[in-house]
Amino acid sequence: MTKELLYDIIEDIAADADMDVDSFVRSLEKQRNDFFYQKNASLPKDAADYVNAAREEKKALRSERRTQAKKDKLSQEIKLFRRIFPNVKSEAIPDSVWKDMESGIPLPYAYALFLTADKGNRSYADSINEKNSEGALPPVNGDGESELTMEQVEAMSPEAVKKSFPQILRSLGKWKI
User: Fold this and answer.
1) What confidence tens digit (pLDDT) does each residue in 10-21 have?
2) CB-CB contact of 137 with 155 (8 Å)
3) CA 135, 136, 139, 142: dihedral to nearest 10 degrees?
4) Distances (CA, A) of 152 to 129, 146, 147
5) Which of 29, 104, 113, 169 has the highest count of CB atoms within 10 angstroms of its CB?
C-alpha cells in the first residue's frame, strides 16, 4: 500500500467523522496514549517506569531511523546528481530547483525539469523573435551616410539596431518628436 493510498483512506475516515485529517490523527494519537497510560497504571511503579522508558527509547529510535533515511536519500540524490550533471556547482542551481526539491521532487529530476522548462522558454522566445524579424525591415547596411527615419529604426531587429547605432544617433537630430 502506498503512502498516498494510506493518506486517502485516513482522509475518508476523517471525513466520515466530520473531522479534518490533522484533528483526526491527533485524536487517534491521544486515544493511543490514553490507552497506554491506562494499561500502564495497573503495573507496579518499577515496571511502569521501565515500560515508559522503553517506549520513549523506541520513539527516539524511530525518529533517528527516519532522520537517517532522509540523510541517506539525500546522499543518493546528490550522488545521482553528480553523476548526471558533473560540471554543475551547487551555487549554479537556482532557487526554484531547491523549492521543488523541498516539495518532494528529487534533486536530479528537479534540475532536469528546470533545464527543460528553461530550454522551452528560450525556444519560445526565439520563435517569437524569428517571427518579428520576418516582418521587420532589412537591416541597414549602407555606407553609414544615409539618414534613418524613426519608423525604420522601430522596425529594426535588435541586431540591426546594434549594427546601425552610430547612424541612428546621427539621424536622431532630424526626427520630429
Assistant:
1) 999 999 999 999
2) yes
3) 100
4) 17, 12, 10
5) 113
